[in-house]
């Protein structure tokens, strides 16, 4: 939990200061949503510590966190957050055309969204199985 939150805060602060491969005009409106994502991760971790086991409040908060992460990922990854110079630099240092690189980046974004969705569903199923195995006490 601490590592994830720390990494998230470092990532957001790097995005706020502007990295050359980010389209800052597109990224800036997303910054508060990154902070909300970090806060949700903290809430999930604290709730797990408080309850000490998989109880319904923990599962509910985890489900909300996963849903938020998925929706946020869809919106962010569907934006043009990458600077155009990223694709141009790849073209300059490879044998690919700009169209191929742009299509590859778009495919990578789509795959990442699907991985987040599938990973979230698998995680929630695992948690529900643990809850069922442990008994349905609240």
First-residue to last-residue Cα separation: 24 Å
Mean pLDDT: 88
* Largest sheet data: none
Radius of gyration: 18 Å
Reading the helices and strands in chain order gives: HHHHHH
The number of E-state strands comes to 0
Structure classification: mainly alpha
Percent of residues in helical segments? over 70%
Apparent shape: elongated
Descriptive notes:
This protein is mainly alpha-helical and 138 residues long. It is 80% helix and 0% strand. The chain contains six helices and no strands. The chain has helices at 2-17, 24-27, 31-51, 56-78, 84-92, 98-134. Helix 3 (31-51) packs antiparallel against helix 4. The chain is elongated and about 60 Å long. The protein starts with a helix and ends with a helix.
Short description:
By secondary structure, the chain is mainly α.
Outline the fold blueprint.
Elements: H1 2-17, H2 24-27, H3 31-51, H4 56-78, H5 84-92, H6 98-134
Key features?
80% helix; 6 helices; 138 residues; mainly alpha
């Amino acid at each position: 939990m601490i590592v994830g939150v720390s990494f998230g805060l470092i990532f957001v602060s790097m995005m706020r200061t502007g990295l050359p491969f980010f389209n800052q005009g597109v990224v800036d409106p997303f910054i508060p949503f990154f902070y909300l994502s970090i806060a949700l991760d903290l809430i999930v971790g604290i709730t797990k510590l408080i309850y000490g086991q998989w109880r319904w409040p923990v599962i509910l908060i985890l489900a909300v966190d996963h849903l938020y992460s998925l929706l946020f990922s869809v919106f962010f990854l569907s934006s043009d957050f990458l600077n155009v110079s990223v694709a141009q630099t790849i073209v300059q240092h490879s044998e690919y055309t700009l169209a191929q690189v742009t299509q590859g980046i778009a495919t990578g974004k789509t795959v990442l969204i699907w991985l987040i969705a599938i990973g979230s569903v698998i995680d929630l199923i695992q948690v529900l199985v643990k809850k069922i195995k442990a008994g349905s006490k609240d």
